[in-house]
Design brief:
The complex is a heterodimer. Chain A is an alpha/beta fold. Chain A folds into 2 domains: 5-95, Beta Barrel (Elongation Factor Tu (Ef-tu), domain 3), CATH 2.40.30.10; 108-250, Rossmann fold, CATH 3.40.50.80. Helix content of chain A is 15%, strand content 35%. Classes of the chains: A alpha/beta, B alpha/beta. The complex binds flavin-adenine dinucleotide, flavin mononucleotide (FMN) and FE2/S2 (inorganic) cluster.
Chain lengths: 254, 303
């Protein structure tokens, strides 16, 4: 069986969650059967040379459907956002190495910042009430997916940079102390802080990274990221194949 | 069905499509999607004498109709390739081309000598990588450079030798002729054109290396012109590449004078592009009543 493949995926449901952020469910056939939380897709944009990497937000194996939540950041994502229900996206998926969830009876913490929140949703599902979802946004109006985490039984802790809702400040200021593992995705400064938080407490931490990509499958070596090497030095790994999810203590932040 | 076989410097390819170096790794990833025997050959990721870490990220930027890359020849080194990649690749039923890059003619020669002891089918010398600062010498941009490095390698290379030419020159025909005179069995062109993009908000180049190599449809007409010019100057086969995305592009490149083709950047948009290009090419040959793809090579009717 192919680990990943290309497929024309019909859009089942499209919704604008907050201005500029879209949620799209697609009919993905066998791609959905293969998908695991934390993996991503490369979505083709007509007229563009490169596909756009977007994380898998939810996997519905029963309906063979995948959910993506993405923000308009430039021309490519803007074109993808215009696709209406019934039309199809050309998707290469599932790609990369996702979250290793381990024992779901442990108390764990999912930490997301902004558009880094969507990739955590599927991963937090099997943990139910054992998972706290610490979700940070710029402001209240930018908050997304809170009710989705609540609906699957996770304890949601909201943080905003401007204090317009929830905890006023950084996510690391409101992470529960009793957690046994941390899973995070968001901007690099946040990931660095979360990784440091976990390291200080000796808690294992996995983080999902981003990098500009061409192939998305490990063939072009375009998406390099610095990783610690066994000999104490460093080496370039690749976000699309070795990641996007890495053990935080293996990543060398610059 | 029309015959798709081509002969490239004594090596028979099942069809004229070769995966371009650096876009296909050592074949394992796209081998997930279709048998690698679909392709006439694979030009492997550029190898250096010793392992290279490559450039810091970002290494990739999209451009109108193409992309820039500055991967910086990240590779495990020639010995690791021979030990860990070649045995598997050899079993895939396709022609294996080792692509090499060095800092000095002696480094190129040493690699060619080592690879001549293995069962690679062919050696492609990349004398034109624009993304490697170290070494300084750009062999590919002067006739003297092309001659020096090609003749050094020729002395030790027992495999068919293909020299990959840089488009960053004023007279591509001269370069092709220099390679032929120094003993090359084939030339391939074009490598990437040096380019640059800048983020207008941060005023930083998007690529950490500042400049990168431009590939994709944007370079296609330049590549067609250069293949046409080179093919008129040399008797050895010319392998055409640069921006080929459709079967129509493939036909056009053959007409310009290419004996075989390489495809790279199009794979990023459509990993199945080789399958589609070959289907289209076969259909075209049937429609045109041609019995062999070789009949297209150089068949352009210039004004
Ligand atoms: C593994 C991975 C998962 C991602 N998951 C999501 C997600 O779930 N939701 C979401 O909204 N965004 C996600 N992103 C970011 C998303 O890929 C970019 O926002 C998007 O590519 C921007 O494309 P554009 O054409 O709109 O922007 P432009 O700036 O016009 O894009 C130009 C080029 O730069 C690339 N690029 C620009 N920003 C980024 C970026 N941050 N990361 C990687 N490439 C970039 C584009 O792919 C394109 O090749 C993810 C990125 C990666 C690497
Ligand atoms: C990501 C990337 C990496 C490349 N690495 C190499 C390389 O290692 N050696 C080489 O000779 N050419 C390399 N090239 C150049 C290609 O082999 C090819 O010459 C060029 O991309 C033009 O063809 P295309 O437009 O079909 O991609 C690379 C190109 C890309 C896009
Ligand atoms: S994008 Fe090609 S190796 Fe990661």
């Amino acid at each position: 069986m192919k680990a990943f493949d290309v497929r024309q995926c019909r859009i089942l449901r499209r919704e604008e969650l907050v201005p500029g952020v879209f949620s799209v469910w697609v009919e993905a056939g066998e791609l959905a059967e293969k998908a695991a939380p934390g993996q991503f897709a490369q979505i083709a944009v007509p007229g563009k040379t490169l596909r756009r990497p977007i994380s898998i937000c939810e996997i519905d194996k029963a309906r063979c459907a995948l959910r993506f939540v993405f923000q308009i950041r430039g021309e490519g994502t803007e074109i993808l956002a215009r696709y209406e229900e019934g039309r199809s996206w050309d998707i290469l998926a599932p790609l990369g190495h996702g979250f290793e969830l381990g024992d779901c009876s442990r108390k764990v913490c999912f930490v997301g910042g902004g558009i880094g929140v969507p990739p955590l949703l599927e991963a937090a599902k099997p943990f139910g009430a054992n998972a706290s979802a610490v979700l940070g946004f710029r402001t209240k109006a930018a908050a997304i997916l809170l009710s989705d985490f609540e609906r699957q039984g996770n304890r949601v802790i909201l943080a905003t940079d401007d204090g317009s809702a929830g905890f006023h400040g950084l996510v690391t200021g409101c992470m529960p102390e009793d957690c046994e593992a941390v899973f995070a995705c968001g901007p690099t400064p946040m990931l660095r802080a979360v990784a440091a938080w976990a390291a200080e407490r000796g808690v294992p931490c996995q983080i999902s990274l981003e990098q500009r990509m061409a192939c998305g499958v490990g063939a072009c070596l375009g998406c390099a990221c610095k990783l610690k090497a066994e000999d104490g030095g460093w080496r370039f790994g690749h976000v699309c194949k070795d990641g996007p999810v890495f053990r935080a203590d293996c990543v060398l932040f610059e | 069905m029309a015959d798709l076989h081509v002969n490239l410097a004594g090596v028979t390819l099942a069809n004229p499509l070769i995966a371009a170096s650096g876009t296909f790794g050592f074949g394992r990833e796209y081998g997930e999607l279709y048998p690698l025997s679909t392709l006439g050959g694979i030009s492997c990721k550029g190898l250096t004498l010793r392992e290279r870490p490559g450039n810091p990220p970002p290494r990739i930027a999209e451009t109108p109709g193409g992309m820039l890359n500055a991967v910086g020849l990240q590779n495990p080194g020639v010995e690791s390739f021979i030990a860990h990649e070649l045995p598997w690749l050899r079993q895939q039923g396709t022609v294996v081309i080792a692509n090499i890059a060095g800092n000095t003619p002696e480094e190129y020669r040493e690699m060619a000598e080592r690879l001549s002891e293995t069962d690679v089918d062919m050696i492609e010398m990349n004398i034109s990588c624009p993304n490697v600062k170290q070494g300084g010498v750009q062999f590919g941009t002067t006739c003297e450079g092309v001659t020096a490095v090609t003749s050094a390698v020729r002395r030790s290379c027992k495999k068919p030798l293909m020299v990959k030419l840089s488009p960053n020159v004023s007279d591509i025909g001269e370069m092709a002729a220099a390679a032929e005179a120094a003993g090359a069995d084939a030339v391939s062109l074009i490598n990437t054109l040096t380019g640059m993009r800048i983020d207008i908000r941060t005023r930083r180049p998007i690529i950490r290396n500042n400049t990168g190599g431009l590939s994709g449809p944007a370079v296609f007409p330049v590549a067609v012109r250069m293949v046409w010019q080179a093919a008129q100057r040399v008797k050895i086969p010319v392998v055409g590449l640069g921006g080929i995305s459709t079967w129509q592009d493939a036909v056009e490149m053959l007409l310009a004078g290419a004996a075989a083709l390489q495809i790279g950047t199009v794979l990023f948009q459509d990993p199945y592009a080789p399958v589609k290009i070959l289907e289209g090419l076969s259909r075209f040959l049937e429609e045109e009543g041609l019995s062999s793809v070789t009949e297209l090579t150089g068949a352009v009717r210039p004004w």
